[in-house]
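Notes, p. 3: input format for complexes.
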Amino acid sequence: MLARFSRTKSLRCSFCGKPAARVSQLMGGPKSYICNECVGVCNKILEATPCTFTGWGDMSETQLLDALKVSEASVEATRSVLQAQIDELRARRVSWQKIGEALGVSRQAAWERFS
Ligand SMILES: [Zn+2]
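Output follows (115 residues plus zinc ion):
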């Protein structure tokens, strides 16, 4: 069951990382929150994706092209969640070495990708 939160300062969207104060609505589930904007992105993905997905090969060129923008938006939203987590870890002075280890990459690779 989802709970709704309105402008609670300490909460953030788990998908885009925006704080509750910067979105009009934030809904919470177990250990995660989603803002109204990310719900909108999800709805667009659902609208653009056929309900009976049987593979990209079964989609028309138009369907694939229509789905590109929303797929990119979902990738960007996910990327911003990752960056927000990294930013929080860095704010807590967690080393690039530890972040790299958690991601399975070198300290240098983690630093180059997220700093
Ligand atoms: Zn969001």
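The chain has four helices and three strands.
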